[in-house]
Every structure is written in C-alpha cells, then in structure tokens.
Amino acid sequence: MSLVSVTIEDHVATVVIDPREGRYDRAFMQALGDAAEQVGGAPDDVRAVVLHAAGGAFGAGWTAEALAGHDGIDGLSPLGGAFDALAAAPQPVVAAVRGAAHSAGLELALACDIRIAAEDATFAMPETEAGLVPRGGGTQRLPRAVGRAHALRLLLLGETVDAAEARRIGLVSVVVPSTEVVEAATRVARTVASRGPIATRLAKEAVHRGAEMPLQDALRYELDLTVLLQTTEDRAEGVQAFIEKRPPRFIGR
Asked: Dihedral (C-alpha) 67, 70, 75, 80: value to the nearest 10 degrees?
C-alpha cells in the first residue's frame, strides 16, 4: 500500500495514511501534502474528507531521520507544511483516530476539523521530554482546540491522555468502539457532504479566520460571507426546498 491513498465517492474523499512503522518521515509528509492539495483543489468533486490510518496507530510520532539533521527554517518547515495544507483545505476534514496519536500524529489530528476517537486512542505531545518543541503546529493548534491550560499541561508535562479524557477536554468530539471509528467518521463526512457545499466551506472559513480576529471584525466577516452566500444558486435552492418540504438538491454554485 502507498504511504497515502485517496479515493473519492459521493463527494466524500477518503484519505488513508500508512506511514512506515506508524511514524512520519519526509517521504510520508510529501505524500500527505500532495493528497491535501489534491482534495483541497477539487471543491466541486469533494465536499468533505475522511482521514484515517490503515494500521492500528494513527501516528506514533516522527522518525529519527525527520527529527535529526535538519536545522533552520528551510530544513524544518517542510515537516509541518503538509499539516498546514490539510488545515487550509476548504472542505471540512474528519479524522478517525485509533491507537496512538502522539507528537506528529496529534499534530495531524489537530489539522483536521472534527476528530472522532476510538476507545483505544491515546493522545500525547511529549517533545519536551527530549528537549524539543513541537514543529508541526502543536503549540498553536492545541491551545486553539482545548484552551491554554489543557494545552500547557500536555505540552509541558508530556502527559498521555486516553480517549475519555480527550473527550472531556474537547480534543475529540465523539468516542466510539475501535471497530466503528472509521464508519462513524465516514457517517459524519457524508452528513457534511449532504449539506450545501458552499455553506459548509464558508462556515469553516468563518470559524477559522474569525478566531484570529477581534470579535467585531469577525462578526463583520461572518456577515460578509452571508451576503456572499445569498448570491448563490444553492442558497435559493435551500430556501425553496424548505418551503416545499423536500430535500435540497445542491449543485455547488
């Protein structure tokens, strides 16, 4: 199996990762970045994305090769670039997490919009134990997901939390049996894909970009996106379907 594979069916892209020995190296990150650009660049075909690992672990961390011998911005930035590309995809991305999501594995999960965890999933950011700082967005996306207090606890102490604790602190949305996690994530993605595709993309954009703005600016940005949506055929179809009490037929325009 390839390091990363992509299949598209009924407007849902399924991205399956299979890093060697469950750890992320530069070849894997290149393949992941290519997959992120593929799905992100196809908004007409892809309305939602599911991401899961082929093996038992979502990601146990970086390989020694990825960690060593790449000093400076030019050497380090490619490691997190794939995560950035995935986070920047206009479509909502749903992660199905089984087993360990540690270090880079947790950073990949954090680059997704919705996280569904298996009961056996564990989460950790242990870089400081080795005198390192997370290099794939962990120090920035983790506090945005769980708040500063929980993020600092995980970052500074290197604690491993189980799925139940991850759910309690808001790191994951749902916890399900391991055998059901991919199905559960796919079900969520299919529900997203059944919604207005322009609306879901703009809602994601409003949340992520608005989080970086002062509240009043963010509210104005939300209003601007709402006005933009009103010019689309999908918005008219959604209103008409509501009036006629039938399922809407969205076309992405």
From this structure: 0
Residue in this structure with the two tokens 């207005």, named with its chain if needed: 196
Residue 9: phi, psi to the nearest 5?
A: -150, 130
Q: What angle do CA 239, 242, 245 make, to 5 degrees?
A: 150
Angle of the 197-210 helix axis to the 215-229 helix axis, nearest 10: 170
**SS3 assignment, position 49:** strand
Return the percentage of the chain with pLDDT > 90, whole number. 73
pLDDT in tens, 155-178: 999 999 999 999 999 999 999 999
One-letter amino acid of 28: F
Query: What letter does residue 23 receive in the DSSP assignment?
Result: E
Q: How far is CA 105 from CA 5, 51, 135, 138, in A?
A: 17, 12, 12, 10
> Domains (ranges, CATH) in the chain?
4-193 (3.90.226.10), 196-244 (1.10.12.10)
Between CA 106 and CA 136 the distance in angstroms is 9
Q: Is 107 a catalytic residue?
A: yes
Tell me the β-bridge partners of 122: 100, 162
CA distance 43 to 38: 10
* 127 part of the active site: yes
Which residue among the candidates 127, 212, 222, 233 is catalytic per the annotation? 127
Cα–Cα dist 52/109, whole Å:
10
Among 21, 65, 107, 119, the one annotated catalytic: 107
Burial of residue 237 (CB within 10 Å: 0-12, 13-18, 19+) is middle
Best CA proximity match to 11, nearest among 33, 38, 43: 43
Handedness of CA 232, 234, 239, 240 (dihedral sign): positive
